[in-house]
């Protein structure tokens, strides 16, 4: 685990040198907009947790979030067999606007690319260098796309050809329940609805309409060698009947996050975050299908020219095989 954290830190520091500080607004600790990117989970309306301090009245923020995930997991028992091998890149255009003080509305429009990717050799070298297990990676074809789940001799999921298209669109609403900006404290109530606009056969959507409700809170912890902020969230996601594993899909899951941020410089914030959720499917003994998941995300936020901010982060599966082996996140935001 220490070696993983060291690699994440080197990744962040190397990329943070590409930006120039030019803060137009005071830099805030904003939670990572991260969710489980597993091909069987990312299709649902699991939300990023948003912020505990909403935009000022009349302000607008637009952003582009890119999540590049490398999946490799195999498992089987007497009834089931699964292979999740491929790369998924999710580009999400986001916008949120504060129509009045403490009330935001927004939208998220994803565009998804499924393919064999290019990172397999890099991941193998990364595992070898830091002494991590390779699993069956070396026996599998390089840069293959195969998302396959078979149960009782029937193929339940099969994606083995390149695909690209729009995913499921999300609408977002946030209400400020408590706010003390001087103390850096806040609590927001958030509601999302996800519509089945993506192709569920290509795993670009679930075919379900999803509703999520959650609380996000945070507070400053002090200014020892910089500003420290802790935050967290907890909520529920309800899903109508979808097209992916409909006889195993649960109707409700719980989710939550915990994070810690530090601002050592006026233009740089470093953050760590853990995202967790309960299982999305029943009636499976495979970890990739029927197990709760926890992901660890580490990275930072740096200011760019004109007051834009760039989140750079990297995610790892803390509960192995329940989320992608590695995910790289880039999130560019501009406030007006």
**Straight-line N-to-C gap:** 40 Å
Report low-confidence residues grouped into runs of 5 or more: 1-6, 13-23
CATH superfamily label = monomeric porin ompg
The run of helices and strands is HEEEHEEEEEEEEEHEEE
Number of DSSP strands?
Answer: 15
CATH class: Mainly Beta
Mean pLDDT: 89
**Biggest sheet: strands, sense, closure?**
12 strands, antiparallel, barrel
Structural class: mainly beta
Strand content: over 45%
From the alpha carbons, calculate the radius of gyration and give it in angstroms. Answer: 20 Å
Using the alpha-carbon principal axes, give the shape: globular
Count the domains: 1
Report the oligomer: single chain
User: In CATH terms, what is the fold-level topology?
Assistant: Porin
Strand order of the largest sheet: 1-2-3-7-8-9-10-11-12-13-14-15
For the structure shown, list the relevant keywords.
336 residues; disordered N terminus; mainly beta; Porin
Task: Describe the structure in your own words.
By secondary structure, the protein is mainly beta. It has a single domain, classed as Porin. The chain contains 3 helices and 15 strands. The chain has helices at residues 2-16, 120-129, 287-290; strands at residues 60-76, 80-100, 103-115, 146-151, 154-159, 163-166, 170-180, 185-194, 210-222, 227-239, 252-265, 268-277, 293-303, 309-317, 326-335. It has a 12-stranded antiparallel β-barrel with strand order 1-2-3-7-8-9-10-11-12-13-14-15. The longest helix is centred in the N-terminal third of the chain and has 15 residues, at 2-16. It starts with a helix and ends with a strand.
């Amino acid at each position: 685990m220490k070696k993983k954290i060291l690699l994440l830190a080197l990744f962040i520091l190397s990329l943070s040198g590409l930006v120039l500080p030019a803060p137009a607004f005071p830099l805030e600790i904003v939670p990572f907009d991260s969710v489980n990117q597993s091909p069987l989970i990312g299709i649902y309306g699991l939300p990023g947790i948003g912020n505990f301090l909403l935009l000022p009245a009349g302000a607008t923020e637009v952003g582009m979030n890119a999540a590049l995930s490398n999946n490799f997991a195999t498992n089987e028992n007497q009834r089931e067999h699964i292979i999740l091998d491929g790369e998924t890149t999710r580009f999400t255009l986001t916008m949120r606007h504060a129509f009045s003080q403490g009330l935001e509305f927004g939208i998220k429009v994803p565009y998804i690319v499924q393919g064999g990717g290019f990172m397999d050799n890099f991941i193998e070298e990364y595992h070898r260098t830091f002494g991590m297990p390779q699993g069956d990676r070396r026996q599998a074809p390089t840069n293959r796309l195969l998302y396959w789940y078979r149960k009782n001799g029937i193929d339940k999921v099969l994606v083995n050809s390149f695909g690209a298209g729009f995913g499921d669109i999300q609408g977002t609403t946030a209400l400020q329940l408590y706010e003390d900006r001087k103390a850096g404290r806040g609590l927001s109530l958030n509601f999302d609805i996800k519509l089945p606009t993506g192709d569920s056969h290509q795993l670009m959507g679930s075919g379900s309409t999803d509703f999520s409700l959650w609380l996000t809170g945070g507070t400053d912890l002090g200014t020892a060698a910089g500003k420290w902020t802790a935050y967290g969230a907890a909520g529920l996601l309800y899903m109508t009947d979808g097209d992916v594993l409909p006889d195993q899909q649960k109707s409700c899951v719980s989710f939550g996050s915990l994070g810690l941020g530090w601002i050592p410089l006026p233009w740089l914030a470093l953050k760590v975050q853990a995202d967790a959720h309960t299982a999305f499917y029943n009636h499976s003994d495979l970890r990739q299908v029927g197990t709760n998941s926890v992901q660890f995300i580490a990275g930072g936020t740096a200011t760019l020219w004109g007051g834009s901010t760039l989140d750079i982060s990297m995610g790892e599966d803390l509960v192995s095989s329940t989320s992608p082996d590695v995910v790289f996140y880039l999130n560019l935001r501009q406030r007006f």
